[in-house]
């Protein structure tokens, strides 16, 4: 018998991603397209991931120029690159050991970069100090989140550790929780109220955990993924009071903070709200906030640069957090640099500023346009209903699937919304993910797709989706 | 009485404390970045602030980081990566055509033609194919399936992933993992984190840190009394010991793993770092297949490699892979779940790995420079290995095995009882006491042997052989002088 047959039960209990079904199909379809097989579409529009570049958004020139010069320092002397790019690269290289992006860095990250992140946080949050010792750069924010969960989740205890997690919630976090043997305690965001977080629902969720597990933390995503909702200050204050009262650790995933476009919508960080609430809350609520270079206008998912800021943690625990991060060595240097460029972009007056600003505005304009268009189209299609999207880079419309479609899905062994997505991929060459991947109220179905794409791609996507959907609803009526 | 207590609320203590945090975390140590390094960083700060010390810089010989010590990156690799980062440079005629071709091919395989897009969690497919072909070439044609290759965020990530997959069971049934003593402390840290049972097998210092199957057997028999041993980890070439396993030894280990039904984990990140005459790197996979189908179709194994060591030394890219042999197909699905939590390994690291397994060929423009740089790096390392052994073996009280491979020396220190007692007084393990003193007096940062494991009553330190030759010589002599003083002081 294989040695590997006996394996970690935590790993066995991790669910398979629905995405796997679609990915397999997409590979086949792309292969067929390559071989010239005739299809009603010439390419697959892949909007499954929160991955702007995959969806067609171009990287920001300034960022890539600086990174290129850091990779190949000969370019620092090349007059083909703007002066501020060269200066930035030179400074960054000086901050690397041996002047090379190939060296390891300190565990938390290159100290000067960590310092600049700290300054960014302070600026963003209206002055609240952010000690460097509390910041850890990691290979993407999820890595840091997993490390924090490692500390929080005791899978050996007789009562399992629970973490309150939103429904819907992006899949990487829930997968990570399952892998650590934690109990996911779901709290349902209120779809009819634009996916609002209601504190009464947190209360209900906590109650439901009694006798089932030992809840230690509350995980919130703001701006929401996939929900696109942005919390009001009031709601955030309620959450803070809740975690304080119930003695929960607060995990705030804020990676979409740059993408806010709803009217009257404003991102405010949990750290800031906490600080503004003053003592005793501001001195006692234990908080981990996560940010990343993967989202926002940079969209540099592949560079794997993210960070966590820890607030009000026990210094004795911080020692062990350091150890957990240090055995991973350090985050990839290019990812660290991407973070640095994110928190310190070109300023007015800098030679690179005009182009940087132009590119950023272009992406933002596309995003705003796409949201409007997508919402208009989706809400005009019978069977679709989409809540307003204020922030983030996804739409998460609800689909009312006809009973015949649900039946057919059962027959082919797929969840109903996965079945819809599978058909959409096959017949229209559009790749989106089913709501079951993120969790949803029993009996409801959704799809999620990324709206941070070039405008023409969104137009094409919506065109294909509309015509597919109309046909689908007809076929299964 | 506080308002809270009056309201019947719990006393205001922290939510996350040492008492209620995951107890496994408490046992995690990683000496390579441990307390001595933290002190070294502090001293550097003090030097910057103008505090006077008997030295002007701290030499960090604690970590296997070649670039930090002045080794230059391979030009071709950096050219391709710069082109991948900013493809406008493809128009620049200062870049050679072979670099441009590689860059175009990599970008073609990236989502949206950008290194900023996620890849599949297992890694970019054409890169896995290139890795498979590299392995086939290296191993004399033995087939390698790209589907069994997993790119990772450094080899460490893949090692931890496999361990996470394998460790299970309760009480006496808990998975035991055999690791060498001394070992690279990622292993002990990962085992502590996963609450696996660490099973120590001792390398033989008298025999150049050789691995003896009899010792494996002794260790396993003992371990069976209290756990369920299922995994055997080997680092070849060794870290911190640098020994390069003979082919015979590798065969013996494979035979042992088969007999005892153990999963083999072969950490081969130093495979190009072989210096000693008569020593050669044999990949575990190659030896396995050459032992015939009785072994090659049954022994389950994972081999690990990385872009951090060898002649590239690109630690900061976090590039690596593992190849899994004879993996149960049902298990593959489980492994995919685990790697998806990581989303994907950094794309620049994947791209770099692609170049390492697909370097310039003799008919390509960049070949000459590439070979020149590669040869120079490996030759310099070989020279440093030799110099280190030579100087350290002139130090009375040091016993230094030849540095056959890897990047470190791990000499044994003869410490007097007086020194040991003094260390105890200070509340320190003797080799930590020694290394701390060396740091404070000479500004040289090493890692005490206790961080890697050693036989009871013996003391060592691990030093890298990476500083430039002149500086290395300086460091070796300083350590020799320090040791003589130390011996004198504690005689």
TrEMBL record, chain A:
Which InterPro entries does this entry report, sorted A to Z?
ALAT1/2-like (IPR045088), Aminotransferase_I/II_large (IPR004839), PyrdxlP-dep_Trfase (IPR015424), PyrdxlP-dep_Trfase_major (IPR015421), PyrdxlP-dep_Trfase_small (IPR015422)
Q: Name one Pfam family in it.
A: Aminotran_1_2
Superkingdom, taxonomy of origin? Eukaryota
Q: What class of enzyme is it?
A: transferase
Keywords annotated in UniProt: Aminotransferase, Pyridoxal phosphate, Transferase
Tell me which EC number(s) this protein carries. Answer: 2.6.1.2
Q: Which cofactor does it need?
A: pyridoxal 5'-phosphate
Q: Which residues form the Aminotransferase class I/classII large domain?
A: 77-464
The record's Gene3D superfamilies line, in alphabetical order, gives: 1.10.287.1970, Aspartate Aminotransferase, domain 1, Type I PLP-dependent aspartate aminotransferase-like (Major domain)
Pathway where it operates: Amino-acid degradation; L-alanine degradation via transaminase pathway; pyruvate from L-alanine: step 1/1
Q: What reactions does this protein catalyze? A: L-alanine + 2-oxoglutarate = pyruvate + L-glutamate
> Could you tell me one molecular function GO term of this UniProt entry?
pyridoxal phosphate binding
Its family?
A: Belongs to the class-I pyridoxal-phosphate-dependent aminotransferase family. Alanine aminotransferase subfamily.
State how it assembles: Homodimer.
* Official protein name in the record: alanine transaminase
From TrEMBL, chain B:
**EC number(s) from the headed UniProt entry:** 2.6.1.2
Function in brief: Catalyzes the reversible transamination between alanine and 2-oxoglutarate to form pyruvate and glutamate.
Family (UniProt): Belongs to the class-I pyridoxal-phosphate-dependent aminotransferase family. Alanine aminotransferase subfamily.
The top EC class is transferase
Which residues are in the Aminotransferase class I/classII large domain?
98-478
Q: Which UniProt keywords apply?
A: Aminotransferase, Pyridoxal phosphate, Transferase
Record's GO cellular component terms: cytoplasm
- PANTHER family, alphabetically? ALANINE AMINOTRANSFERASE, ALANINE TRANSAMINASE
Q: In which pathway does it act?
A: Amino-acid degradation; L-alanine degradation via transaminase pathway; pyruvate from L-alanine: step 1/1
**InterPro entries according to UniProt:** ALAT1/2-like (IPR045088), Aminotransferase_I/II_large (IPR004839), PyrdxlP-dep_Trfase (IPR015424), PyrdxlP-dep_Trfase_major (IPR015421), PyrdxlP-dep_Trfase_small (IPR015422)
GO MF, one example: pyridoxal phosphate binding
Q: Which organism is it from?
A: Pleuronectes platessa
Q: Which cofactor does it need?
A: pyridoxal 5'-phosphate
Catalytic activity, as annotated: L-alanine + 2-oxoglutarate = pyruvate + L-glutamate
Q: Name one Pfam family in it.
A: Aminotran_1_2
Question: What is the protein's given name?
Answer: alanine transaminase
Q: How does it assemble?
A: Homodimer.
Asked if tRNA processing is a keyword of the record, the answer is no
């Amino acid at each position: 018998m294989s040695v590997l047959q006996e394996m970690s039960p935590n790993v066995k209990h991790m669910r398979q991603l629905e995405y796997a079904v679609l990915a397999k199909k997409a590979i086949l379809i792309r292969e067929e397209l390559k071989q010239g097989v005739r299809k009603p579409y010439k390419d697959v529009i892949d909007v499954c991931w929160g991955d702007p570049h995959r969806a067609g958004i171009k990287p920001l020139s300034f960022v890539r120029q600086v990174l290129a010069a850091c990779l190949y320092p000969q370019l620092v002397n090349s007059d083909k690159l703007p002066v501020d790019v060269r200066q930035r690269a030179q400074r960054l290289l000086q901050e690397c050991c041996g002047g090379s992006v190939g060296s390891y860095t300190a565990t938390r990250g290159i100290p000067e970069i960590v310092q600049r992140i700290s300054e960014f946080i302070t600026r963003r949050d209206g002055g609240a100090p952010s000690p460097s010792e509390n910041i850890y750069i990691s290979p993407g924010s999820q890595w840091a989140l997993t490390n924090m969960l490692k500390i929080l989740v005791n899978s050996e205890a007789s009562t399992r550790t629970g973490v309150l997690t939103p429904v819907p919630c992006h899949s990487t976090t829930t997968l990570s929780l399952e892998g650590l043997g934690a109990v996911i305690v779901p709290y349902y965001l209120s779809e009819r109220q634009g996916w609002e977080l209601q504190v009464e629902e947190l209360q209900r969720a906590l109650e439901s955990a009694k006798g089932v597990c030992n809840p230690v933390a509350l995980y919130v995503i703001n701006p929401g993924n996939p929900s696109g909702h942005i919390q009001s200050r009031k709601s955030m204050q309620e959450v803070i009071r809740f975690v304080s009262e119930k003695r929960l650790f607060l995990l705030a995933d804020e990676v979409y903070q740059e993408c806010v476009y709803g009217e009257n919508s404003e991102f405010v960080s949990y750290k800031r709200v906490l600080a503004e609430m003053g003592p005793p809350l501001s001195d006692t609520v234990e908080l981990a906030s996560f940010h990343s270079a993967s989202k926002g206008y940079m969209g540099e998912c592949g560079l794997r640069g993210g960070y966590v800021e820890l607030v009000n943690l026990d210094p004795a625990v911080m020692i062990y957090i350091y150890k957990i991060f240090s055995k991973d060595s350090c985050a990839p240097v290019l990812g660290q640099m991407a973070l640095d460029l994110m928190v310190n972009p070109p300023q007015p007056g800098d030679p690179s500023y005009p182009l940087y600003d132009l590119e950023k505005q272009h992406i933002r304009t596309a995003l705003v346009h796409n949201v409007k268009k997508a919402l208009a189209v989706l809400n005009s299609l019978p069977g679709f209903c989409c809540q307003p999207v204020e922030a983030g880079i996804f739409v998460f419309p609800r689909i009312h699937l006809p009973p015949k479609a649900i039946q057919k899905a059962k027959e082919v062994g797929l969840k109903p919304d996965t079945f819809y997505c599978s058909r959409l991929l096959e017949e229209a060459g559009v790749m989106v993910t089913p709501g079951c991947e993120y969790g949803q109220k029993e009996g409801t179905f959704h799809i999620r797709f990324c709206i941070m794409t070039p405008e023409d791609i969104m137009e094409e996507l919506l065109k294909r989706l509309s015509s597919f959907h109309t046909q689908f609803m007809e076929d299964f009526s | 009485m506080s308002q809270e207590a009056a309201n019947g609320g719990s006393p205001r203590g922290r939510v996350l404390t040492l008492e209620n945090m995951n107890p496994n975390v408490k046992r995690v140590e990683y000496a390579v970045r441990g307390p001595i390094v933290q002190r070294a960083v502090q001293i550097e700060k003090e030097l910057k602030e103008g505090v006077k010390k008997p030295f002007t810089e701290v030499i960090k010989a604690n970590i296997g980081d070649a670039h930090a010590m002045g080794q230059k990156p391979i030009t071709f690799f950096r050219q391709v990566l710069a082109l991948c980062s900013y493809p406008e440079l493809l128009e620049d005629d200062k870049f050679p055509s072979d670099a441009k071709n590689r860059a175009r091919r990599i970008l073609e395989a990236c989502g949206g033609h950008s290194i900023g897009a996620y890849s599949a969690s297992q890694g970019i497919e054409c890169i896995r194919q290139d890795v498979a072909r590299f392995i086939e070439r290296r191993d004399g044609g033995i087939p390698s399936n790209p589907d069994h290759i997993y790119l990772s965020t450094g080899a460490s990530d893949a090692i931890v992933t496999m361990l996470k997959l394998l460790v299970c069971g309760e009480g006496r049934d808990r998975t035991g993992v055999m690791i060498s003593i001394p070992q690279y402390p990622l292993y002990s840290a990962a085992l502590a984190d996963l609450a696996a049972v660490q099973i120590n097998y001792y390398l033989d210092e008298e025999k150049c840190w050789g691995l003896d199957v009899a010792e494996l057997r002794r260790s396993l028999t003992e371990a069976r009394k209290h756990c369920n041993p299922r995994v055997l980890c080997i680092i070849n070439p060794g870290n911190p010991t640098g020994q390069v396993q003979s082919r015979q030894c590798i065969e013996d280990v494979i035979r042992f793993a088969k007999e005892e039904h153990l999963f083999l984990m072969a950490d081969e990140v130093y495979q190009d770092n072989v210096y000693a005459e008569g020593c050669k790197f044999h990949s575990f996979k190659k030896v396995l297949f050459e032992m015939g189908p009785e072994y090659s179709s049954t022994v389950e194994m994972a081999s690990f490699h990385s872009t951090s060591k060898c002649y590239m030394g690109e630690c900061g890219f976090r590039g690596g892979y593992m190849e899994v042999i004879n993996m149960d197909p049902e298990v593959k699905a489980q492994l995919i779940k685990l790697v998806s939590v990581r989303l994907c390994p950094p794309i620049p690291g994947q791209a770099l790995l692609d170049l390492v397994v697909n370097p310039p060929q003799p008919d390509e423009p960049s070949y000459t420079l590439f070979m020149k740089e590669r040869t120079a790096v490996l030759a310099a390392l070989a020279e440093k290995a030799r110099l280190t052994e030579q100087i350290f073996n002139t130090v009375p009280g040091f016993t230094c095995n030849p540095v056959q491979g890897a990047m470190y020396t791990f000499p044994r220190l003869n410490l007097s009882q007086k020194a040991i007692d003094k260390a105890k007084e200070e509340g320190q393990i003797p080799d930590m006491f020694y290394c701390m003193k060396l740091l404070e007096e000479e500004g040289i940062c090493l890692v005490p042997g206790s961080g890697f494991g050693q036989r009871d009553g013996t003391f060592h330190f691990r030093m890298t052989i990476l500083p430039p030759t002149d500086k290395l010589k300086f460091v070796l002599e300083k350590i020799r002088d320090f040791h003589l003083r130390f011996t004198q002081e504690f005689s």
